[in-house]
User: Fold this.
Amino acid sequence: MVEITFAQLHGWLVAFLWPFCRITGLMLASPIWGHSSVPRQIKIALAMALTVVMAPVLPPMPQVPLFSWAGLGIVAEQLLIGAAMGLVMRVTLVTVQATGEFIGLQMGLAFATFFDPSSGTNMMVLSRFLYMITLLMFLAFDGHLMVLELLASSFEALPIGLGRYDPGAFEMLARYGGTIFSSGILLALPLVAALLIINLALGILNRSAPQLTVFNIGFPASLTVGVILMMVLMTDLDRFLERLFDQGLDFLQAFLAALAG
Assistant:
């Protein structure tokens, strides 16, 4: 008869639960696995499967009782680390969504919105279109596999129960949020500049010839030029996304190193 002691059961539970918390935090905050269309059962099952695969090669767990205040603190700590990693990838991918917002405002598509269940807000059609392309390109570049590789290596850089983290890393994470505006406006700048010139020219034309109203000429011209420029932009979108993904993954690696001090 096989007998299992409490110490053995506690060791197995600790070796599974704490890595599971970090992986779950990543799953909940990441833009791919954390999408609202993915059922909760699938998220939990995937997190459990990754934990079972990674657990045998992880560093030794700290000698801390699971049912204690220290054990509860480690659980919260692992959830925070995983959520921070997922937030980095969310900021990286939402950059293109901001690009769609900037372009849509200039093209006159601000009224073309619909409810987005993933964010719980109204989103422009153009933003949703670019965001879905970005997600597909991220999968095509094997970005999800690179994130999982960084997740596995994070247990070496940030062992469970380390207890000392550099708070400056979270300041880095907050500053990285500016990528949404800087990179987003950089991608949208050619279209925004061209459409701004068109709107300026139409404003001058409307003052010189009041019968040529903006509603008769301005909207069709902005939409037509915007669609043509979007076709040109799509030809170079893959190179921009490749640089954006590299930037996000490099920052994620630097964030983990900074968090470890």
The beta strands are 113-116, 121-124.
